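Checklist before submission:
- one chain only
- standard amino acids only
- sequence pasted in full

Submission:
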Amino acid sequence: MNFLSKFLQGMAFVPAIVNGVEGLFGHKSGTEKKNTALTLAQNTIQATDAIAGKDIVDPAKFQDGLGKVIDGVVQCLNSSAWSKAKGSGQ
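Returned file contents:
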């Protein structure tokens, strides 16, 4: 499996991870929730990487990019009906 395919598979889990972390750790700070989501997403991608071969050659840059993806997903979710439904107790 090439890197792009693997990367897109890993990214497919980010919204679910962010939503799950928010549900479990909603009372924690944004930084703590982001770090938890980042760890879970990294573990998912690293497991895929271990199975399919080593394609991530600079883990620090990859982690930085993944953090930006998580920030983007949070921004999208916070600007959507998801945020309004969460805030209204639904």
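Reviewer check: The first helix runs from residue 3 to 11.
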